Amino acid sequence: MMPSDTIRCLLRLFVRTPTPVPWNVVDLETGGLIFVVDARNTASTLIMSAVASQFGEVVAMDSVAVDGDEVIGCLVRSVEKSREAAAMIRGAYHFAMRENEETDEEHPY
Known about the structure:
- The protein is α+β, with helices and mostly antiparallel strands.
- The protein has a single domain, classed as Alpha-Beta Plaits, CATH 3.30.70.
- About 35% of the residues lie in helices and about 30% in strands.
- Strand 1 (about 25) and strand 2 (about 35-40) form a beta hairpin.
- Helix 2 (about 45-50) packs antiparallel against helix 3 (about 80-95).
């Protein structure tokens, strides 16, 4: 399956799966691929791709509309072990998307 088809399938699956967490980073354990997804209204493709590209090659990026909102996601091909890379992306993305009210610091991206 092509990365563009894979990302669309994964986004549709995320949208249809009830979860209390509006974003996630998942090691797909196939071909070193990592799936990053965010359903928050503050989600940004620029921030997502900037963070993800630090830990591998962004091979696909897409979005789906859900009830007037947009869910964005990307597939990253890891240059390191995908499990460790997914953990690093998770931490970096969480930091990049923090709300300004938690700190006086500006967003790093």
